[in-house]
Amino acid sequence: GASLELDQLAAAFNDTFARLEGSFDQLKRFTADVSHELRTPLTALRTVGEVALRGSHDADGYREVIGSMLEEVDRLTRLTDELLTLARADAGEAKLHKEPVDRGALAREVASHLSVLAEEKEQALEVDAGPLNVEADRTVLRQALVNLAVNAIKYAPGRTRIRVVTGRQGGAAFLEVADEGPGIAPEHRERIFERFYRVDKSRSREMGGTGLGLALVKWAAEAHGGRLELETEVGRGSTFRIVLPSAH
Ligand code: ADP
User: Fold this and answer.
1) Mind listing the pLDDT tens digit for each residue in 57-69?
2) What is the pLDDT of residues 98-141, one digit of tens each?
3) Ligand 1 neighbours (beta carbon < 6 A)
């Protein structure tokens, strides 16, 4: 009767409030994280500038200062670009422009784009890709693959092998990046996909990371109706796999 309905209504209200409270907390934490992430490079910029102004330097000295300031500007630019993409994704405004994408060609393009980075660490960047097409947003998929490959290069030691592989898995298409890096311990496995979560904050920053890379890859996979998988073993390496529904 009426009391049962009231009970249900009360339960529904409680649910809604709990969810609102949850997203409020999330928003608060996210805003605090963003402020902190912005302040770090801004503080570095200010310090480097102030120290340089205090003394007088020759042309090379100033060039070095400007170079290090530009590095921080780069990081800020990347951070704001990635935040903008995620904000659009959250608002449901990120429209995918789907077109037939040759994943093999995409994998080779990403690998050759990053070969200089890998060469610096004497890593072998290999591509194993077949010409299999998929309906996808090429730009979004490319950025996702770049993020995975950049992570592999960053976190795996020198003289190791990194493989970019595309293929089919049942009816689905996949693109993966496999490294022989440190792997990811069980307690971090779920959390590394969260915004700004890093296993080692200072190490990630040192290498120019924003902490948003994997959050973007996960979004890219899910926006295509797919998912992001991780296979990893500590001390052995990690394989991040974007699985997309229905290959053609
Ligand atoms: P960033 O690399 O900028 O810190 P990401 O979101 O791309 O941010 O990655 C989050 C964290 O996941 C990294 O800080 C690192 O600790 C861990 N990680 C990502 N890729 C790898 C990898 N290939 N091997 C080991 N750890 C990784």
Assistant:
1) 999 999 999 999 9
2) 999 998 899 999 999 999 999 999 999 999 987 778 899 999 99
3) 147, 151-152, 155, 179, 181-182, 184, 192, 198-200, 204, 209-215, 238
CA distance 136 to 102: 10
| Strand partners for 169 | 172
Mean per-residue pLDDT, 67-82: 92
Residues in CB range of 179: below 8 A, 6 or more apart: 151, 152, 155, 156, 160, 161, 162, 237, 238, 239
Q: By C-alpha distance, which of 100, 95, 103 is closest to 243? A: 103
Q: How far apart are CA 132 and CA 112, in angstroms?
A: 19
Closest CA to 107 of 149, 156, 170: 149
